[in-house]
Specification:
Rossmann fold; binds S-adenosylmethionine; alpha/beta; 31% helix; 6 helices
C-alpha cells in the first residue's frame, strides 16, 4: 500500500490534530499485510473511526478505489484535515464530525478501522474534542475503545472485518473476550515494539 501524500499539512496544524506516528503506520502495515484477504472481500463501505489526519483511511482508499470511504472524528479540525488528505490523494471521502459511529443508523460497514486514544489516563482527561482526544484513553486506556466495541455488532456487516490497534496496557485479552462474547473470532495481524510501547493490531470477524 502506498503512503499517502502529506506535504499539504502545515506542521502547526499538528498542534490540533494527531500527527501520524508509528501506530498510524502499523495500522497501514496491518492493512497491507491483509491486502489479499481484503481484496477477496471486495468491500463496498469502509469506515475509519477517529481518522485524525486521514492518512490511514486515505491509504485504504488508494488501495481500494471502488470502496466508499467514510471517516469520523470527534475533533472537527481532524475531519477537515482528513478530507484534505483524501482529496490530495484522489480519494473520495465523507468525513463526519461525530462521536465514534453513533450517528450512523441502520448502516453497516464491510471494514471498520480504529486507532483509538489508547493512553492510560484519569477518566476526567478522556472525552475531549481537541488534541487531548487523540491520546487520553481513561482507565486501562480503553474508555473510548470499549464504547466502540459495544457498537460493532450493529455497525459491522456480517461478513465484515474490524481492525483495532491496542497497546499492552489496554489488556488485549480482555478486548478479545468482550468481542468473543459478541461472537467474533480474533487474530493478531501485526505487533511491534516502539520504544517502551508494545503495539498490536487485532482483527475481528464472524
Ligand atoms: C491516536 S489518534 C489516531 C488518528 C489517526 N487514525 C491515525 O492513526 O493517525 C485517535 C483519533 O481518535 C479521535 N477520537 C477520539 N475520541 C473519539 C470519539 N469519541 N469519536 C471519534 N473520534 C474520536 C481523536 O480525535 C484522534 O483523531
Amino acid at each position: 500500500m502506498e503512503t499517502p501524500y502529506q506535504n499539504h499539512i502545515n506542521k502547526a496544524d499538528f498542534d490540533h490534530v494527531y500527527e501520524p506516528a508509528e501506530d498510524s503506520f502499523l495500522l497501514i502495515d496491518a492493512l497491507e499485510k491483509d491486502l489479499e484477504y481484503l481484496k477477496a472481500k471486495n468491500p463496498t463501505f469502509c469506515l475509519e473511526v477517529g481518522s485524525g489526519s486521514g492518512v490511514v483511511v486515505s491509504a485504504f482508499g488508494m488501495a481500494f478505489p471502488q470502496t466508499f470511504c467514510i471517516s469520523t472524528d470527534i475533533n472537527l479540525k481532524a475531519c477537515v484535515m482528513s478530507k484534505q488528505t483524501a482529496a490530495y490523494n484522489k480519494v473520495l471521502l465523507d468525513a463526519c464530525n461525530m462521536d465514534l459511529a453513533s450517528s450512523f443508523i441502520n448502516k453497516k460497514f464491510d471494514v471498520i478501522i480504529f486507532n483509538p486514544p489508547y493512553v492510560v489516563t484519569e477518566s476526567e482527561e478522556c472525552g475531549g474534542t481537541d488534541i487531548t482526544a487523540s491520546w487520553a484513553g481513561g482507565a486501562k486506556g480503553r474508555e473510548v475503545t470499549d464504547r466502540l466495541l459495544e457498537m460493532i455488532p450493529k455497525k459491522l456487516a456480517d461478513n465484515g472485518v474490524f481492525y483495532l490497534l491496542l497497546i499492552r496496557e489496554n489488556i488485549p485479552d480482555e478486548v478479545i473476550q468482550i468481542m468473543s462474547n459478541y461472537g467474533y473470532k480474533c487474530e493478531t495481524v501485526i505487533k511491534r515494539q516502539v520504544r517502551n510501547e508494545h503495539q498490536l493490531v487485532l482483527k475481528f470477524y464472524m
